[in-house]
Fold each of these.
Amino acid sequence: MNTVFFLVFGLIVVVCAINVVVQRHPISSAISLIGVMGSLAIIYLQLGAEFMAAAQIIVYTGAVMVLFIFVIMLLNAGSEEGGKGPLTVRLLGVPLLLVFLGLLSYLIQRLFSDTGPVRFGDFKGGSPADVGRALFSTYLLPFEITSVLILIAILGAIVLARKELD
Amino acid sequence: MPAAVPLSWYLVLSAVLFSLGVAGFFFRRNIITMFMSIELMLNAVNLSFVAFSFQLKQVSGNIFAFFVMVVAAAEAAVGLAIILTVFKNRATLNVDRIDSMKY
């Protein structure tokens, strides 16, 4: 059951992520990215991170991707022009990336070969109550600093995107 | 088929997602698609954090992933505002045409 769950949603994540990279129109990439983030939320749920799953849906698929699609529609962005990158990137890019991925997977298998199986329900510390307790006790200062960061980001976005008054 | 998969499969899935994000960042020329590739990489890292949080039975990984998510949202807001300004000034989204700092 756990295996089927992981394989189904892992496959959806990978297929949607490939689609993000290969689609030429930004709106297709954005829709595929929503698929990636939604399926990742379900994988988080399997890993016991209930609050993270909810936040992933609300923040990423709900807010960030809507912002992306707003901007794509506002700029009326069409398909990408057929400009090809430099020759070295075209020739060496994909092989080097596969080498990087292979090396990374090999290291992961070597370092974490003795980890136990992931069963749903083994870890219950990711509920909103536990996350909230940690957030407002141990991690209070980082939490408050992040709120200031968001305020700065809001002001920055407004200043950057406003119409110039002559 | 085994009843449950080991943790390393989740980490490999995260590595695959990260590599796809890197590929999108290097191969695409549309600034919005490159930005979405960055979001893909951040999501891959978040998956690693949550997987380790599960393995170590600690909530800290979830908290850290939460902070990454918050910073990613702030970054998306500012980045998209910058994209809007660039488009207003140059009327293009192709990164090869936005090269006035290159020469």
Amino acid sequence: MADPMNVVGRPTPRLDALERVTGQARYSPDIRLPGMLYARILRSPHPHALIRAIDFAAALELDGVVAVLTHENCDIEWASGDRANPRMLFNNPVRYYGDAVAAVAATDRHTAEAAAQLIAVDYDTLPFVLDAEEALEPGAVPVQPGGNLAPPFGALAGGGAAVPGPAVYERGDVEAGLAESDIVIEDHYVSKHHNNAQMEPRTAVAQWESGKLTVWTPTQGITNCRDDIAEAFGLPYEQVRVICEYMGGGFGNKNQCQDTDLIAAELARRTERPVKLELTRKEDFLSIHGRWPTSQYYRVGAKRDGTLHAIELTGYSGMGPHIKSSGDIAGIDFYQCPNVRKTVHTVHTNVTTSANYRAPSYPQGVFGIASVLDAICHEIDMDPVEFHLRNATRQYRDATPYTSYGLIDCIEQGAEAFDWSGRRRPAAVDAGPIRRGTGMAIGAFTARLGLSNAMLRLDDAGTLWLHAGVTDIGTGAKTTLAMIAAEAMEMDLDRVEVVWGDTDRSPYSVGESGSRTTSHTGFAIVEAAEDLKRQLDERGPPGPGEELVAEASPNPTLDGEQRYSFAAHFVELEVDTELGGVHLTKYVAAHDSGRIVNPLTATSQVKGGVIQGIGMALHEELLYDRNTGIPVNPGYYGARIATHLDTVPIDVVFVDTEDAHGPWGAKSIGESTIIPVVGAIANAIFNATGRRIKELPIGRDRVIGAMS
Amino acid sequence: MTGITRRSFLGRSSAGIAATATLPALTAGPQEKAAAQQSGPAPRTRIELTVNGESHALEVEDRWTLVEVLRDHLELTGTRVGCDRGECGACTVLLDGKNIYACSYLAVWADGKAVETVEGLARNGVLDPLQQAFIEHDAPQCGFCTSGQLMSAKALLNEGAEVTEQSVREALVGNICRCSNFLNYQAAVLAASRGA
């Protein structure tokens, strides 16, 4: 058991909980500046079209309209909007229903809305393609000039030669491995696009003062957002300030800067007035991104004794017109296996862009591989827990040691908390219409280390000021980091003041994505605190008017090791075989995230990730009309986002591990929480019904179809 | 909110902490285009309404929603707009004691009515028991849906009926939380209803 600590490890309410429950927390939509204009965007009603002409004279004639931007009068590039192709704020041709065509600034939002509708756009509609595999067929309409197959993301991100082609990973000899296997399962799994659907819609407020641009915007990374905006406008970084005091969720779709930031800034520059650009919920669903849909073809082989021997995955990820993220299909790395080949194609299509949503490439990949492995267990009559204890990864890709490892503990302690041995039954044993089943799946997510920065100031009143470039997007990062600082300085938490969410006041941060904040920024805080304590020893506490200041910018690396957080999830559910409903009755989530800094907020992260996963498994999907290329349900109700009625009691188990590379032994938590969920639920539905459903979401229609 | 500071609150909440630790439109139709082309100012109406006990006489555009008036004209930004189409519940306020979506309620309809918003929950420097319970149960994550969850919970408690796990879920079903912290919200409302 880890040594008890003074602050770290104690359940602690958020430092800013009071602001969050009284309405005082100030989010970007709450910003109002004197003389501020309101902006609205006109969007394409076609999935693919060439714009012949745009006439906005009537819009400009409307009282209160100040400026209109289109692709003809604005050629600013949105660089972070596409890694593979040039992406402008306004593009011609438009490549998806919802592509921005024009933006209007007016004295109030109703006038801006009315003016947008007065813009006449002459479209020459083009053929379109919605599905990734169809987009690769000969003769498919090209979505981008270079064709529909994108280069592997690793080449794009690495700045290397970006030649179109799949991303390939290989070890061993997969064909020989399959031939040597006693049992081979060959199958096809399909996952769908679903939206991050964070509660706060995108709003950007931009103001220029004496040549300096300030943007209030909901962003997961104030530093990278600031850098992106500066580069788009050709400004030095210090001439751009990004402020995000409170942020209403993102789950990966508020990384980097968004086109909204740039459009607001450009309208503000031209009108010489502050501009607030607000997206509607429908626009937010369509114009940013959700999780990429995948098509996964597996061939998996195992020995009769349950030893996994070969995995082949050929996958297709539909990315929409633009490549912002990897498009990977992950999950097979959770298993030991001598022969592996993974080939993933990232493909341009005429639908809404796909990119990061919590553990971006994992839950859909785990749905596939966990289902196939469960099928192997069923074929050879092996308990899935036993199978996982035998085959779960011990070294990253069977070659690289982990810095700390609690996956087996997660499986064993999770199974015990769930009473797996008591609850698990053979498949499809219930005779009535309501059938009960259990399922499990595992997960892992990188707990990377990397460059970060923190500054500590100890003032003459004994207050410790922690400057960190975080926003606290809902994870509790502000509190976690203050706890790490208090622990490091051996102070009470209430002596720590956090300065955050403002690039002019807080130092570089990698951004709150990739479950990196605790490890990255926390590490910097511990280092800065060591310096501050040394100064205290040498000089004593600061006298009147004095301060002690310490800053650290560590960039820790791993020497021949991989650093991961792990999880194993267990679910029991009931399937209504007549009406198709799935009702969860028990859920256990066991996690190895190293030492837990704040058990209160970490537990909330797990519960939230699990329920997001339940929504993904059972009902969420952005649907397109195949005849028109128009999405039919972009909104909370239509896309069937989870509600208070979709909950199940969730037991959270944190296994006791410590990681020598993390602050106080901590690793990461946020993204690992959603990874096993869909796979575990799909396997439980098989256990209940004896039918394996291979396409998400597993809604009533698919359950009834599988039973008939 | 005068009288409550973050520090003084956190100091008082330690008992609660210990308890918690043991708990496991993209395109316009012809009508919209015609409307947009009509010249002249939008029609306005004078209304009087009470917000958090304070009466206001306002001249509002007929097309303004209640949430627009609250946020943009009365500067009560604690009520959030998540979808502006009656799907998410972030804008929930009480109208004569009942919870409504303020994004889907015209300001002119509120003439003569009493509105309560999240800013009115704490009285005389004391948090509402719901707010206290929300903090102790870590109910807000990003916090954007929190005001709406609070007001729907307040409406439930206002009814005075027995509060159960199921009645909490049903009362809050119109309030989405994408951080999906539903379980903590439900536990907090139950605790507040029991005076815990």
Amino acid sequence: MDFKRIQWIFLLIFVAIDVFLGLQWYQGIQFNTVDTVGSTSVLKEMQGDDISFKKPSNKVGEGFYIAGQYSQAFMSQAGIMLKGTSTTYDNDTGTLTAELSINKRFKLNLDNPQRTLDHFIREPENVFHGQDYVYSEELSRMTRHQIVYVQVVPSGKIYDNSGEVHFNIDSDGYVSSYTQTYVSSPKILREKTPTISEEKALTWLYQYNQIPNNTTILWTKLAYTKLLDVNDTTVYVPTWFFGLRTNNNEEIHVKRINAFTGTIIKDTPQKVNINK
Amino acid sequence: MHNRDSHFVKKFGVFSQYMLPTSLVLVIAISLAFTWLIWTNPAHFNKSMNENTTATGPTQLSARVITDIYAPTQIIYTDASQNQKLLFDQKINVVNEVIKDIQPWHFNKIKQIENVTTKKYGQILNQKNTLIMNYPDSISGEILNDTFNQRLSISSKVQFNRVIVPLNSKLDKIYLLNDNDFTVYEISVKGASTRILHTIEQVKTAIPVVEILYHKHVLLIYPEDIMLKQYSYLQNRQSQHLFLTNLFNNGSNGDVKTRKTVETTTYEEGNDRRIVFDNKTGIVDYQNFNGSKSNVNLNNSLHQGFNDLLAIGVPLDNMRYFETNGTENSFVYRTYVEGFPIFNQTRYGAVKLSYETPGTEHATFSQYSLQVPLPNNQPMIKLDASPTVLRQLVSAGISVNKVQDMQIGYEWQTDPSTDMVVNLRPVWYIEIDNKWQRLEQWLQKG
């Protein structure tokens, strides 16, 4: 009988040991996947703050550093090529403004503006190098009277006011004028490099306190933005864009995260002058 | 207790006589199984290390993961007539593409190939129709699993610095090679796809090279002169404050002693931690006499190294593991440009971590790092072919069998006109007596 009792005591002790070891082991496994758990818990926390978003992808992307220039000579050519427009060129901002003559204006279906504009922009007599631009639904939704086309560069699009065409719509729904900026001869500065994933970018943006409570994330996009100006060249970097709208406000805000380093991109790019 | 026991016995009778010993055996077996699982799970070692680093480290927001640091840096293609070419392309990242192509494969089983002589090693290395992925120095099998998304069970003994993928029609095996002791492992592979062949075809630039065994060292020889680009980068200077917050327990607000001279600024926290900043060169020397030492094998050391890099807070963009010393207690990391390492960012590389005496951590790194590449119009530079370089060394009185390694690297030079810009110039670097120096430095001495 005594032996039986010892067996019982042993049984109970070993059950306790098993529970303890089991917990230890489970925690070990948990630690192994700490990275994903980390992101997931941040995403949960965001939902707790009434931030709504589509499930972000955790796949890493790839991109380049790209250098480009404003070309004044380029824009002065534009004036000769275009027909039925009167153009002005602002040297400081590198912006060409083209006013369409009355008979060149056309009405636009604002639900699907790209159907008409895609044809218009491709004609060299309408927009200079227009075939380098594509329609951006996200940016076009930012303001009601503008349709935005963005410039395509190697392996991506430029979401920056230095490579865009903005079509202005008058009160009758006609396209009356446009402004154009152009990045000429974009060059790759460094080999293709991995970027951070959408999930990382989104959770970091939240951790930097850049997403207020009660916000809807309308869209996410990986595109190029201006990082710095060096002499007369501009360096562009792959960037995660997030279109945010606070729920009691109509306005859409765009937040940007550098997709190589994960830092916030400032509104005014850094300027560097090198004496060569 | 006694009453309850007898109650059970009454209830179940003979059955309980077996029940009790059986369940006892069962729980003992379970506890043994858990013990084994815990002991073999490396996460438990990492956990203790990580606690140590997170206590000092700030944010764990890193854009880079461990497999980015311990990644191959070169891809060499050996064609059907045994010509070897270093593959490079600015538009596609060849290393990443090849890794992505291999990730869906299934690594089945690993076995060591017995009786590998130096000659046989050379033959395996130079097999026809293969792809060689080179790591700057040996890494552990677990990193192989992480990099290629595999779950192969590999002994912690296994170390390798090359992966060889035979590109024959079967694609059913790969080899792991270790230059340090000439061991070769064979891994059988299932489900390989031929996408890897298309990746290789896409690559634009192929520099002719030869992997040769030379006095027990494997050297990558460039038989022809090479033209390489120069690069310019915007320089980033991290503040002293940042490193103090990252590396001291209480940040810079706690009980910290400061000593400042013309050359250096020293901060001490208690008797355990000390940071010395070189005011002129921006070189930082950090010592912690209260560190943890649990590096039982290379894999743990590599993990600890990565965690320490995160804790220090230097940018890990393009940072790669470069080499360890013979006793595996000192690790050097370097910044890479287009597949070539950068030298003299500090005397030792971008970051050097040492764990020489148990419980001490010693890190040397720089406040300066590369930030953003800048456009430049500097001409390309011509580098001599390897045989010419070796001949120059010999005529300067340096015997060739003293050469441990030779590599093309980029020399870090601050722009003379502005300290915001770093120029990177390609030059030959030679390793003799465990010391890396520019070719011309060795020639002057010789």
Amino acid sequence: MANCRGTPKQAASTAPDRYSSTMAVLEISDLVAVWDPVTGERLPVHRGEVIARLREVGDERAARIVQRMPVTGEFLDPVAVDRLLVRVHTELQRLNEELHMAQRFTEILVPVLTAVRAAGSRPRIVDIGCGIGFMVRSLAASGVLGTDVELVGVDFNRALVDEATRLAEDEQLPCTFVCADAFALAEEATVYLSSGLLHHFPADRLAEFFRAQDRAGTQAFIHYDIAATRLAPFGAWLFHRARMREPLGRHDGVVSAMRAHGDDVLLSAAAHAGGMDAFLFESPKYTNPFCAAMRPVVGLRPALTGDFRRALGRRARGLVAARAKVG
Amino acid sequence: MATTVPAVLGLLALVDAGFAGFRAATGRNARIRKRSYHLTAARRGFVVGAAALALVTLPIAATLVFTADPGARYDELVRAGTRMLQVLAPFAVPVAVSLPAYWLLPMRGSTFVILVGLGPFTLARPVVVIGATAWSVAGSVDWLVWAVAITAAVGVLTVEPLVHRRWYGAPV
């Protein structure tokens, strides 16, 4: 049976709190597939409980979507759920392609890695919550980061990791995928990155997430997420309606935009990575919001910041720093 | 006008069918390199669109052969086609400009084109097609005009779901 509240285990691993009672809007994908973050074991999900939870927050449409999902007894059929999530992530990849997300990461990663190499570190990039690994595979396919870069995608969802691995092998891409907690890998990341992950954390858990990346071997992080603007939910509705077919994907796309954290929330949370300088890059406050539907939080070791700014060139003007470090 | 209007409408329908084929295949292949996959999808859309166009064209030709005054009825069809273009052209021109802009502009400009142009255009397309059909038949009492306009609209709007269901129902 699904655990219906955040657990100490989840807190320890900084996994997104899938059942926080403080969140007014819920993504179906967070509720229908649940893992023990320590053991990685798939937990059975009681369909009735998910539906009740969605009705509790007034989301009848989401409840109807879950009502149509196949069950084994009273529990959601994990195989059917996995197939659905792979379909949704495959559709979602199209949005990432259209928004040039791989180019956006590359734009920041290239100067970051230049600074990292100058500091003598071997670049190892870990994508947290990689899904079917679009970002990692795309960076691997482009080869633009250099042959010395190790690219790793990490996700709790075994089915998504298997799909990412299959796709990478199919195109013979130099990258790997692991079903695990990104912060419990045998080897630390030089650079952590994620795309569309931050809004899965409630605001009061973000600091913990960023603090976890302030570790000895880590030089930087880049986390892209939906820019929290007034237009974001409408834009998300429009694009998910136009580009996605799965009702779950359409629903969660809009909810994601509604849950997106504001610039101030992200910057103050990122400041909890005390050993790093934290920035927002091209926040919609300072740039055309129609060009910045997604914007990243960037963290760097202070020793790298100067080199990073220089390598970024005139784009460095788009960096907005956190006001004060915490911890 | 007698040849330009049907030629432009036919060209629009075929180009639209190619893009409908492309759209039908999107979100079903998560590979990174998929240029040939998209070209195949566009070709399938084009072929299905061409078949739909033939379904519209052949009955027109057959009816005109057996009608008492083919010239008048053809003129009536051209007038309806002109009205259809009055709605379609203002939609097709910005789409035609947006596509090369998306491909050629740098990342931020390209994103801008997607967010304010191509994305909303995709949602607006069925509405535009239905609006163009309604405007084209408005005022005409000729059953042939109504039949041709409605069949053409149905054909245009069904290419994408047909191609999707036939070839792209599940992820590759």
